[in-house]
Design brief:
alpha/beta, FAD/NAD(P)-binding domain, Enolase-like, domain 1, five-stranded parallel sheet
């Protein structure tokens, strides 16, 4: 259990030892306080505002020590308590949480619907297509089981309609929930024009065409949730056959040959869809392996299962030139795996995303933005300007919707606490130990916490629990026993053989649905006994987590016995 310190400073003495029982009010340690610790910006703002009463309670000392130096008086008459710039998963979650806590909220969103990249042109539509691809791939093997299907006939128009219906159902639900909460949605491109003002250039249509109408909104607090955009290589031609993830999701046609620039999750997910629909794939990656960040043991299983999708996997190779021809996009490579120039019907640029920090008029509000476009924040998601917060992609890696949502709740609660004088809410902080990642390919790859390579690089001794799905009754029954579940536990001398879980991952069907248990185990500080003795239902894929823990503990009876040393 982690407890925020009530004071900032240097620990001089401990008054308790391991195993002691403590109660509320117990003195745990003696701290030499920092005399120059910064005053929380929230308190500074509260002391000068003429608006509604502000919270006078200090935020946690860990935050106070890093508190922003800038605190600007709020106007006495504002359009809202909270303005949220951006309506993606982070933005709408912050708005809804703040509204639930009683604040008047405005969301500024440039597109026709809230939901952001994730819901409109990212996470959700890609999963709709990946589900279709997974079913198509699954039934290919049923002939051996006595069930035969004819070759699939693909109607791209109907498939696109299905994808759009999924998006529409979710965006419609969000719009309804915003209305229920009395959250005002203002459509347009927002730019700060002052410390408490945002100018909105209104947009219309399905994209973000400007109408020429502008309006200025004033606020007491703001949350920047302006997200990121796909990066483009400067030498790639402006051609409809060169797309980013948004263009790939449009699914205008199925190419014969497709090149994926970048071996990360987004490119491999879209490659899975197009491959199942009939495209042959090449992928080029500058690093020495695909799916960087994931455990190499897991990626090896995925790559073996997907080898037949690819004509070329070019590692330690970069793209150096491209030109549009009548036959396709001719691409030139350089590096260890570089072939002669190749021509493709479709090129997907999936080389990363860049934050939108330099596109919001941050200077006018005094918000500090890094050279790369990120906005630095403290653990309460506060920027260097005391009354302005930032969340999501724009504050740094990992650029994941589920991270943004949790950051959003923290920012909204801190703001509500400060405006309403609620010390408990004002002390909220983003202190997650780990953030899980998932590649929704087939099979899925999911991981959280330390990988084995990271542990080795950091000099952390770990004990590994590896459970192959060839010993899982459910995986065998499903005809999908290629998977594996892997857990890593602290094996340092200080752990005395009862080390806590440090990381874990799995490759296999529905891996993404199960990784949350491993994340929870890390957050709770569970060890192999805790996980192994938690009764998992049988037969399930999820019980592989418990069995992997038993392997690490040495008590698994679902695998051959290990040799005694």
């Amino acid at each position: 259990m982690e407890i925020p310190s009530s004071h900032a400073g240097v620990v001089k003495a401990m008054t308790v030892k391991l195993g002691d029982k403590v109660t509320k009010g117990s003195v745990l340690l003696q701290v030499e306080a920092q005399v120059d610790a910064a005053i929380p910006a929230a308190a500074a703002t509260a002391a000068h505002t003429t608006a509604a009463p502000e919270a006078k309670a200090a935020v946690p000392a860990a935050v106070a020590a890093r508190a922003p130096a800038v605190a600007v008086d709020a106007p006495s008459d504002t359009d809202c308590d909270l303005l949220v710039l951006g309506g993606g998963p982070g933005g709408y979650s912050a708005a809804f949480r703040a509204a639930d806590l009683g604040l008047k909220v405005i969301v500024v969103e440039r597109y026709a619907t809230i939901g952001g990249v994730c819901l409109n042109v990212g996470c959700i539509p890609s999963k709709a297509l990946l589900h279709v691809a997974a079913v198509m791939d699954e039934v290919k093997h049923f002939d051996a089981l006595g069930i035969s299907f004819g070759a699939p006939e693909v109607d791209l128009n109907k498939l696109r309609t299905h994808k759009e219906n999924v998006i529409g159902k979710l965006t419609g639900g969000l719009a309804a929930m915003a209305k229920m909460r009395k959250v005002e949605i203002v459509r347009g491109v927002g730019n700060f024009v002052g410390s408490h003002q945002l100018e909105v250039a209104e947009t219309e249509g399905s994209a973000q065409a400007l109408t020429g109408v502008k309006r200025t909104l004033s606020f007491k607090r703001a949350i920047v949730a302006a997200g990121s955009q796909a990066m483009r290589l400067p030498f790639m031609p402006e051609d409809p056959r060169v797309v980013d993830s948004t263009g790939a999701l449009a699914l205008k046609s199925v190419p014969k040959r497709m090149l994926i620039l970048g071996g990360g999750i987004i490119g491999l997910e879209m490659g899975t869809v197009y491959s199942t629909l009939g495209a042959r794939l090449d992928v080029v990656e500058m690093m020495d392996g695909l799916m960087q960040g994931a455990d190499r043991d897991l990626v090896k299983v995925w790559q073996k299962m997907n080898a037949d999708r690819f004509d070329n996997i070019m590692l330690k190779t970069k793209t150096v030139a491209a030109r549009a021809t009548a036959e396709g996009i001719e691409v030139t490579f350089e590096g260890e795996g570089a072939p002669a120039p190749q021509t493709y019907d479709l090129v997907l640029q999936a080389v990363g995303r860049s934050p939108n920090g330099k596109k919001i008029g941050a200077d006018a509000a005094g918000i500090a933005v890094t050279d790369r476009g990120f906005i630095d924040v403290d653990i309460q998601m506060r920027t260097n300007v005391g009354h302005i917060f930032a969340i999501g992609d724009i504050v740094g890696q990992p650029m994941l919707a589920h991270k943004a949502v949790h950051e959003a709740h923290v920012a909204a609660e801190v703001i509500a606490g400060e405006l309403q004088g609620n010390a408990e809410l004002a002390s909220a902080a983003f202190n997650a130990r780990v953030i899980p990642s998932v590649a929704y390919t087939d099979p899925e790859v999911a991981w959280v916490g330390l990988t084995e390579d990271q542990a080795k690089a950091q000099g952390i001794k770990v004990k590994k629990g590896l459970f192959p799905w060839t010993a899982s009754g459910r995986a065998i029954a499903n005809g999908r026993d290629e998977g594996v579940t892997k857990l890593l536990f602290d094996d340092s001398p200080e752990a005395h053989g009862h080390g806590k879980i440090l990381g874990g991952g799995m490759v296999g069907t529905h891996a993404g649905d199960m990784i949350g248990e491993v994340a929870l185990a890390i957050e709770m500080g569970a060890d192999a006994v805790d996980i192994g003795k938690t009764i998992h239902p049988h037969p399930t894929l999820g019980e592989s987590i418990g069995m992997a823990a038993e392997v690490a503990h040495g008590s698994c009876t679902d695998l051959p016995p290990t040799r005694r040393k």
